[in-house]
Write a structure and sequence with these properties.
Elements lengths: L1 E3 L14 H8 L7 H13 L2 H22 L4 E5 L9 H8 L4 E5 L6 H8 L5 E4 L6 H10 L10 E4 L12 H10 L6 E7 L3 H11 L8 E3 L3 H5 L6 E2 L5 E2 L20 E7 L2
Parallel strand pairs: 2-3, 2-5, 3-4, 5-6
Antiparallel strand pairs: 1-7, 6-10, 8-10, 9-10
Helix pairs in contact: 1-2, 3-4
Bound molecules: S-adenosylmethionine.
Length: 270
């Protein structure tokens, strides 16, 4: 099902507003502007647990990247990365192994300058200002610039991005195209908004506040999310609410973790 969400993604934004900077604000980063903070505060009023979900996904990203590093993966392709700030993939991976390579892909050209600042001097991290719905283009650049070695395992990350790709753009086919280019032992790690009644109500309320043309968000249930893992071996515990995916012993899952409306999963290419 597709619902409009009143928030901005790249060129669909209202003025300079964009999701990456709103996320940065909620994550305690420093790369946001007044328009982002104002809008983020409005979202927090209409859909109060969206900032919480953004933070919970960042914690999950940390757990996933550490898990993948433990499996020996040293290369990451982060699709729809947003700003690589506030504990993003290269910080987590290179903390364990400075030689770990990370390529971020985001079509939001307004974050490019901030990204270059954030990645300055880091020879093992790069940003591609490209639409992820064009895997051929992304893969050609990876090969031409030797950014990743596709003969070695790569973790393809799709965190909080696939709900921005409608079925008409064939997101499952897009993911398959990326994985087909990788070798056995590569991984897919993703999160995806599920059809949560309260989230949808909050988003509907928000879209009634009339802040320009909203982009679409496609909510997918667990069965639809499972299709992204076709042909892969699902890692335990399977496709579960984000707080239930391999929590750290000190993590507090909160009350009724099964109600957290975002699914998480990791699959390995056999
Ligand atoms: C919710 S943010 C993602 C956050 C990030 N993955 C994280 O874990 O914090 C969604 C991002 O996807 C980007 N995006 C949306 N559609 C895209 C597309 N077709 N190609 C590339 N980037 C896209 C937006 O510009 C935005 O920065």
């Amino acid at each position: 099902m597709a619902l409009p969400i009143e928030a901005a993604g790249g060129e669909q934004g209202v003025g300079a507003l964009n999701i990456a900077r709103m996320d940065d604000y909620w994550l305690g980063g420093r790369h946001h502007r007044e328009v982002d903070r104002d809008f983020a505060d409005r979202v927090a009023i209409t859909a109060p647990y969206v900032p919480y979900l953004v933070r919970a996904q960042r914690k999950l990203l940390r757990r996933m990247v550490r898990y993948l590093m433990d499996q020996g993966v040293r290369q990451f392709l982060d699709l729809g990365s947003g700003l690589p700030t506030a504990g993003h993939v290269h910080e987590i991976a290179q903390d364990k192994d400075p030689a770990a390579r990370v390529v971020y892909v985001d079509r939001d050209s307004s974050i490019v300058d901030d990204c270059h600042q954030l990645l300055a001097g880091n020879d093992n991290a790069a940003l591609l200002d490209t639409d992820i719905r064009e895997p051929g283009t992304v893969l050609d650049v990876l090969r031409a610039r030797c950014l990743l070695d596709l003969s070695e395992p790569v973790a393809v990350l799709a965190i909080a991005i696939l709900q921005h790709i409608p079925d008409s753009d064939d997101p499952a086919g897009m993911i398959t195209a990326y994985l087909d280019a990788t070798c056995p032992g590569s991984y897919l790690a993703l999160t995806h908004y599920g059809p949560d009644e309260h989230l949808m109500t909050g988003i509907t309320m928000f879209s009634q506040m009339k802040f320009g043309r909203p982009p679409d968000v496609t909510f997918r249930d667990r069965t639809s999310v499972a299709l992204f893992f076709s042909g892969l071996e699902l890692v335990e515990p399977g496709i579960v609410p984000i707080v239930d995916w391999r929590p750290d012993p000190t993590d507090d899952p909160g009350i009724n973790p099964e109600r957290h409306p975002i699914f998480a999963g990791v699959g390995r290419k056999p």
